[in-house]
Design a protein that fits this description.
This protein is of the alpha/beta class. It is 46% helix and 13% strand.
C-alpha cells in the first residue's frame, strides 16, 4: 500500500473504518486488493498545499476509499448517508480548498497586522518616554527644555519674519491665510461682547489711580484646555478628532477663548478678536507702569489643547511641535495686527489671582514650563509680578507645587521689590499690603462695573435684533 506511506496512521484508520461496511471477509480482501492499485493522493503542488488542511487534507483519500467500498456493497443495499455527503464534498473539493486557504491566509495576515500594531505601539511608548526625559532636562532658563522648543527657537532666530512682514494674504470660505504660514480656521467662529476695558496707572508713590478707556486688545494670555487627553497615536485618530471637536463646540457655546489650537496644530478662531471671550477670570498684569485687571476684555485668549503638568513643557504626548509652531505664527499675527508688546504675552498661571483670599494662582495652567523663547518671546518667568510687587498678593504651598516646587526668578524679585517698597514708605509688609489692597479694589470695582455695562449693552442689542 505504497499510496499511503505519506500518512500511514491516518490511512490505516480510514481503511479499517470503511472496510467495516463490508460484511463478507471475501469482499474485504477484494477491497484491500483494489486499494493497492489506486492513487489516493493529490498530485504536485496541490497535494503539498492541501495535505495540512484539517479533514479536507484527506478528502481525496476518503472519497476514493469510499468508492471502492460502494462498488463491493450489495446492489440492494442503500448507500450510507455519510458516503453520500462525502461524495458531494469531493465534487466541491476545489472550492472548499480555496475557502480554507483564504481563511488561513486571512488569519496569518491578521496575526502579522496585530504584531505590527503592537510593535508600533511599543515604539511610540518608547519614543514618548525618551522625549519626556529630554523635555524634563533643564534648559538655559532653568525651565524644562525640549527638542521641539529648541528647534523652533533656532528657526525663530534665523528665519523668523519681523512683525511688519506678517499680513493677511488670503481669505476664503472658512479660513484665513497669513504671510507667515498661519492658517486660521473660522468654521467655529462666534461673536461676544464688544471689547471695552480700562488701562490703569498708578501715580508716583502709589498715588491717585488713573483709568483710561481702551477698545483694542493689548496682550495675549496662553492657556491649556485641561480637557480629556488620549495617546497621540494613529490608532486613536478618530477619537482624537472627536475630542477636539467636542472641545471646540463647548468653547463656542460658552464663548471660551478667542483661539484654540488642537493637537494636530490646527488654529481655530472661537470668539472674534474684536469681542470679549471668557478666558482669564480674576487676573492682573502690568506693563511699563500701566496695569490691567480681569483680562477677559484686555487680552486675547489662546488655548492649546492638552493638560498642564508642572515643569513639563512639551513633548509628543503633551503640547507638541505642531501646536508650538501654530502658536508661534498665530502670536506673530496678533502682535502685528494690534501692536501687542512682548511684555504682554503671558500665561494664565502668571496672571490669575483670587481677590477673596489675596492669593496668587486661582488657575495654574502654564505656571511653569511654557516655551516662551520658542514663541519668539522673552521668558516671563523672569518678569516682575505686579500682583506681588505692587499689590501685595501672597502665595501658598499649593501655588509653589503647581509651579514645580520652587520660586521663579520673577517671583523672588517681586518679593524683594515689595519689601523695598514697604521700607521706602516707612511701613511693614502688612502695612503696605493694606494700602495697596485698597488701590487694587478700586481698580477691580471700576473694571467690574464696566463689565456689567458691557454685558447689559450686549443683552439689549440681542433683544433688539430679536424683535
Amino acid at each position: 500500500m505504497q499510496d499511503f506511506n505519506e500518512q500511514p496512521h491516518l490511512s490505516a484508520r480510514l481503511v479499517d473504518r470503511y472496510s467495516r461496511y463490508l460484511e463478507s471477509p471475501v469482499q474485504r480482501l477484494k477491497f484491500l486488493d483494489r486499494l493497492r492499485k489506486i492513487q489516493t493522493a493529490e498530485a504536485g503542488g496541490l497535494r503539498r498545499i492541501t495535505q495540512w488542511l484539517p479533514v479536507l487534507g484527506s478528502l481525496r483519500q476518503r472519497a476514493l476509499i469510499a468508492i471502492e467500498v460502494a462498488k463491493l456493497m450489495p446492489a440492494n443495499r442503500k448507500l450510507p448517508l455519510n458516503f453520500r455527503v462525502l461524495f458531494v464534498l469531493y465534487r466541491l473539493r476545489l472550492a472548499l480548498y480555496a475557502v480554507c486557504l483564504i481563511g488561513v491566509v486571512s488569519l496569518g495576515a491578521g496575526a502579522v497586522y496585530c504584531a505590527a500594531r503592537l510593535a508600533s505601539s511599543l515604539s511610540v511608548m518608547g519614543q514618548t518616554e525618551v522625549a519626556a526625559v529630554a523635555a524634563q532636562a533643564p534648559g538655559s532658563d532653568g525651565q524644562p527644555a525640549s527638542g521641539a522648543a529648541s528647534t523652533l527657537k533656532d528657526v525663530q532666530a534665523k528665519a523668523g519674519l519681523p512683525l511688519d512682514k506678517v499680513w493677511l494674504a488670503e481669505r476664503g470660505d472658512g479660513y484665513e491665510f497669513y504671510s507667515n504660514g498661519a492658517r486660521v480656521l473660522t468654521g467655529f467662529e462666534t461673536t461676544g461682547d464688544e471689547r471695552r476695558f480700562y488701562k490703569f496707572h498708578l501715580g508716583d508713590g502709589g498715588g491717585a489711580l488713573q483709568a483710561t478707556a481702551v477698545t483694542n486688545p493689548v496682550g495675549i494670555v496662553f492657556h491649556v484646555s485641561e480637557s480629556d487627553k488620549l495617546p497621540f497615536s494613529g490608532q486613536f485618530n478618530s477619537s482624537l478628532k472627536n475630542v477636539s471637536k467636542a472641545l471646540l463646540e463647548y468653547a463656542r457655546e460658552h464663548r471660551l477663548y478667542n483661539y484654540i489650537i488642537d493637537r494636530f496644530g490646527r488654529i481655530y478662531r472661537i470668539v472674534r478678536d474684536e469681542d470679549v471671550s471668557n478666558h482669564a477670570g480674576n487676573s492682573l498684569w502690568g506693563d511699563h507702569g500701566d496695569f490691567y485687571v480681569n483680562l477677559n476684555a484686555s487680552f486675547i485668549g489662546i488655548c492649546l489643547e492638552g493638560k498642564y503638568t508642572p515643569r513639563k513643557a512639551v513633548g509628543p504626548e503633551d503640547i507638541n511641535e505642531a501646536q508650538l509652531y501654530a502658536a508661534r505664527v498665530l502670536t506673530a499675527v496678533l502682535r502685528s495686527k494690534y501692536g501687542i508688546e512682548d511684555r504682554n504675552c503671558v500665561t494664565h498661571g502668571l496672571v490669575s489671582v483670587n481677590p477673596s483670599n489675596h492669593l496668587l494662582g486661582y488657575h495654574t495652567d502654564w505656571l511653569s514650563g511654557f516655551p516662551f523663547e520658542a514663541m519668539g518671546l522673552s521668558n516671563k518667568y523672569s518678569s516682575e509680578l505686579i500682583a506681588v510687587s505692587e499689590f501685595g498678593f501672597r502665595y501658598d504651598e499649593a501655588y509653589l507645587l503647581a509651579a514645580g516646587g520652587s520660586k521663579s526668578t520673577g517671583l523672588e524679585g517681586s518679593d524683594l521689590k515689595l519689601r523695598q517698597l514697604a521700607a521706602s514708605e516707612g511701613t511693614t509688609l502688612e502695612g503696605i499690603r493694606e494700602v495697596r489692597w485698597r488701590l487694587f479694589q478700586q481698580a477691580y470695582d471700576l473694571e467690574h462695573h464696566l463689565d456689567l455695562e458691557r454685558e447689559a449693552l450686549s443683552k439689549q442689542q440681542e433683544e433688539s435684533r430679536g424683535s
